[in-house]
Description:
Elements (H helix, E strand, L loop, with lengths): L3 H5 L4 E5 L7 H10 L4 E5 L5 H11 L4 E5 L4 H9 L5 E3 L13 E5 L2 H9 L4 E4 L7 H9 L6 E4 L8 H5 L7 E3 L5 H5 L3 H12 L15
Parallel strand pairs: 1-2, 1-8, 2-3, 4-5, 5-6, 6-7
Helix pairs in contact: 2-9
Amino acid sequence: MSDIAEILALSPVIPVLTIEDANDAVPLARALLGGGLRVLEVTLRTEQALDCISAIARAMPDAIVGAGTVLSARDCARAHDTGARFAVSPGLTDGLAQSPLPLLPGIATASEIMRGLDFGLTCFKFFPAESSGGVRALKAFAGPFGQVRFCPTGGISQDNAPLYLALANVVCIGGTWIAPENLIAEKNWSAIAELARAASRLRTPSIKSDAAGHP
C-alpha cells in the first residue's frame, strides 16, 4: 500500500508499541493480529526497534508494520530498509515530507495542518490528543479543514476511544493500552490478544456523526 489513508482505514485502533526485547516482536505481533488488529506501529524508542520491525515484516506478511517516533529523513530511510510499510512522526519537517514511506505526521495546531497541506498531505496524527484539546479540538478543525482526516494519539484509552471514533474526521486512533509494558514483560500474549480483540470491536458506527457531533 502506498497511501497512508488506505493503511489507516484497515483498523479502528493502531497499537503503539515500544519493544525492549526483539525476541518479543513476533509473538506480540501474532497476538495483536490474532485479536484482529492488522496495522502495528513500532516506535523507534529502543535500540531493538528496527530489528523488531524487520522480524515482524519477515515473519508476518499479513501485518502492516510501521515505524513510529520517526524524527528525521534518516529514520525514515532506515525504517524503509528494514521492512516498515509506513512512518509516524510527532511532527513534520522538510526532510520528513520527502519520506519514501507513506507518512503520518503529527500536528496539534491549525498552522501545522496548513503546512502539511502545502506538502500535499491530508492525513495527520493529532498529537498529543487529550492535552491538545481532544474531541473538541477535532470538531473545531473539521470546519476549515473538511478534507483532512486524523488519527488521534496520546492520552487515548478504551474508555474515551469511542468518543474519537464517532467523529467523521477521525479514521482511526492510536494507543498504548492494547499492549502495555507489563504484559509484554510478562509475555502474556493471550491477555494482549484479548485487549486487541476488544479494540478491534471499537468500529466506527455505520452512520457516523458529523464533526459537530450530530448524526
